[in-house]
Design brief:
By secondary structure, the chain is mainly beta. Among the domains are: 122-156, no CATH class; 165-220, no CATH class. It has two helices and 13 strands, in the order E-E-E-E-E-E-E-E-E-E-E-H-E-E-H. Strands 2-1-3 form a three-stranded antiparallel sheet, with no helix packed on it. The chain has a three-stranded antiparallel sheet with strand order 6-8-7, with no helix packed on it. The N and C termini lie far apart (54 Å).
């Protein structure tokens, strides 16, 4: 049996974007691997926001950590993402956590580490829409539009360069321009930072309170 106990505070802003380990961290993470069964367990202690270290100088937006308590910088292009319980972080808006198929031909599981990549030339549209104009087909797949000349020998997965996956109808919210924007889409990967409007509004209030505290400190 292998037991790992990690005390996590926040993701280090700037630098290599790795985990910043601190003895005062609010989260105790237990990754337990039992023999060949590969059983894993994640344990989150009750949230104590006073022990959270707010991320600073993030190159993009901020997201909640895996236990939904402390904020961290969203992962940027070419940075690692996903992994067991999402320990490698979540990609910023406009990026996807891409997991390549294993070289040995095994199926993709939820534990692989991916890389944040842009979906160049793709725009978001409502699902199940299709338009054709001047021989160019816009095929909507996994919540994104594929814009370009279509090769009849390609299927949608080959066109995107991704392996097929099981789509789910997902509802959630993101903080965009200081507001909680919520939607329901069918997709393979959850693009939402918050599972509901309530959690989004709560996070937004914490951000506003933090900004107000920083303003007071600057004026003092």
């Amino acid at each position: 049996m292998y037991l790992a106990a990690v005390s996590v505070g926040r993701r280090r802003p700037g630098g290599d974007g790795g985990w910043h380990l601190t003895a005062a961290g609010w989260l105790v993470l237990l990754a337990v691997l039992l023999g060949e069964s590969g059983t894993r367990a994640l344990v989150c202690l009750p949230c104590d926001e006073s022990k959270c270290e707010e991320p600073k100088s993030c190159p993009g937006s901020i997201v909640l950590g895996i236990c939904g308590c402390c904020f961290m910088c969203a992962r940027q292009r070419n940075e690692s993402c996903g992994g067991v319980y999402g320990l490698h972080g979540a990609c910023d808006r406009g990026l996807r956590c891409v997991i390549r198929p294993p070289l040995n031909g095994d199926s993709i599981t939820e534990y692989e580490v991916g890389v944040c990549e842009e979906i160049a030339g793709f725009q978001y549209f409502k699902e199940n829409e299709m338009e054709k104009s001047n021989g160019v087909e816009e095929g909507y797949w996994k919540g994104f539009a594929v814009v370009g000349q279509r090769n009849e020998n390609w299927d949608d997965d080959q066109l995107l360069g991704f392996e097929p996956c099981n789509e789910n109808l997902i509802t959630g919210c993101n903080i965009i321009s200081g507001k909680c924007e919520c939607d329901t889409i069918r997709t393979c990967n959850n693009p939402f930072e918050f599972p509901s409007r309530d959690t989004c509004l709560s996070a937004l209030k914490r951000i506003e309170d933090l900004e107000e505290m920083e303003l007071v400190c600057e004026m003092a």
